[in-house]
Amino acid sequence: MIVLKMRLLIPILMLASAVESARILSVFPISGKSHHGLFQAVLKALAARGHHIVNYSPYKLDKPMANYTDVVMENIQPPDKSMTREMLEMFMNLPSIGMPIFLWLGMDLSAQTFSDKKIKELIESNEQFDLVIIEALFTQEAFLGFGHKFKAPVICLQPFNSFSVVNKAAGNPLSISYIPDMAFSSSDHMSFFERFCNTISIFSSLIFYYTIYTPKVDVMLKETFKDPTMPPVSDLIYNISLFMTNGHPYVHYAQPYTPNMIPIGGIHLSKEKKPLPADMKKFIDDAKDGVIYFSLGSVVPDHVLGKEFFDMFTKAFQKLPQRVLWKTGWKHESLPNNVKTANWMPQQDILAHPNVLLFMTHGGIFGQHEAIHAGVPVVCIPIFGDQTLNAKFYEERGIGVKMPFQTLSEETIISTVNKVVSNSKYKENMERLSKIYHDRPKSAADSLVYWVEYVLRHGGAHHLRPASANMPWYQLYLLDVVAALLLIAAVIVMVVYIVLRKILRLFRGKTKPMSSNKKKQN
């Protein structure tokens, strides 16, 4: 019996030892701090499992962790230093069709990253890694070169849900007729015009991506790594083992996921309830009419918006019966008694408080997860990117209302807040969605760890990639079959036409003599 148990235990121990000491490289240079909430949650989960993490990014962990090494990149500017009013207005005025501007900005991010001293040292080093994790398909395709350099499988981690470029690379169906593209402000129930625009948006993005953008990345790869064996970026994209997205399969618009696409949305949510700062807790506890929490995230710095923006909200909040917690770095000369501001606020813990009635947000996907997790309805003020898509999601599901940035005024702020707070349907719908959000077979962290170790055990996961990932577009959408069917149909019609024409001529030829004979007899 003991021998039998040992025989069963040995394979288990061998399986565990195959992944327990994996050395993982991650490169996340993007300056938006909200993205790093996802990145760090993923890396901490892997470090807690016993894997050794070496993370290159502009931000390090708040608290050091065993098996986790931060290499801080110093030449990546945070949004509060790089964002200007002109840039913000450009983003806000971008058309919702296609994504070429974001791709061009990505080239700048890659160039800044490769100019970093520590990244240069990494490229020239003889380090060894078992796995590379990067945000590859959001303008950072050049970092796929690290996978080739270290001969390690690559996992692509996306801070958004899947969109056209990710779906095409993974071989996942584009679902054009009912899944809107990332920057397209529609729902999964589109009109003919919306489906037409969504088609233009997705195909223009893909055409630009593969014909103009990726050739530029190829040049950067060759100049940076100086490796004559470096494959084209299209091949590197094709060799990505897994795509992990920040989507939630049961809350976001229902859509297909191929086996190589793993949604891990909500992994950044903290399991432990932390006590609120004493003054903040008292402010919320004593709010007889409830509390509104207002935050525009970390990407748009306060100084860009201007004094008139803050004066408008201050006057509107003063006329509301609720108390307002406002995350802002703006220095106000005077605030109403019902308003409390701070440069940083524990957002998840605030939303979890039962007195919080409403979340006023810019519509970022991380705030979306946190609002649904807590069951708090939303007023959404989208600014750019996927925020308009998320704002539409709130309205489509009846859990919030969109308030366009361009129409902001003291009156619209008050009326929109009252609309959501006074109508119980928004709270009821959000609580119902929150229950669905929490009902999943395994946690996002458990799913992440399993699939990362799956890739490590098998030296990649190319067998999960469907053939559709590398099929020409005309084959993927059966356009060659449709063309063949149309050709066959045309040939059949032509043959039938020729046969009928000959029969008709033959029939006419036989009837003419008969009619002439009848005339002679008469």
Major pleated sheet: 7 strands, parallel
Class of secondary structure makeup: alpha/beta
Radius of gyration: 29 Å
Which segments are poorly predicted (pLDDT under 50) over 5 or more consecutive residues? 1-6, 8-18
Mean pLDDT: 87
Strand content: 5-15%
Based on CA inertia axes, which overall geometry fits?
globular
Strand order, main sheet: write it out: 3-2-1-4-5-6-7
> Percent range for helical residues?
40-55%
Description of the molecule:
The chain has 522 residues and is an alpha/beta fold. Helix content is 50%, strand content 11%. The termini are far apart. Mean pLDDT is 87; it is low at 1-6 and 8-18.
Summarize the structure.
50% of the residues lie in helices and 11% in strands. With 522 residues, it is an alpha/beta fold.
Q: Features of this protein?
A:
seven-stranded parallel sheet, 522 residues, six-stranded parallel sheet, 13 strands
Which SSEs are present, and which pair or pack?
Blueprint: H1 2-17, E1 23-27, H2 33-48, E2 52-57, E3 68-72, H3 79-82, H4 85-92, H5 100-114, H6 117-124, E4 131-134, H7 145-149, E5 154-158, H8 164-170, H9 192-225, H10 233-238, E6 242-245, E7 261-263, H11 278-285, E8 291-295, H12 302-305, H13 307-318, E9 323-327, E10 339-342, H14 347-351, E11 356-361, H15 365-374, E12 378-380, H16 387-397, E13 400-402, H17 410-422, H18 424-438, H19 444-458, H20 473-476, H21 479-521
Parallel strand pairs: 1-2, 1-4, 2-3, 4-5, 5-6, 6-7, 8-9, 8-11, 9-10, 11-12, 12-13
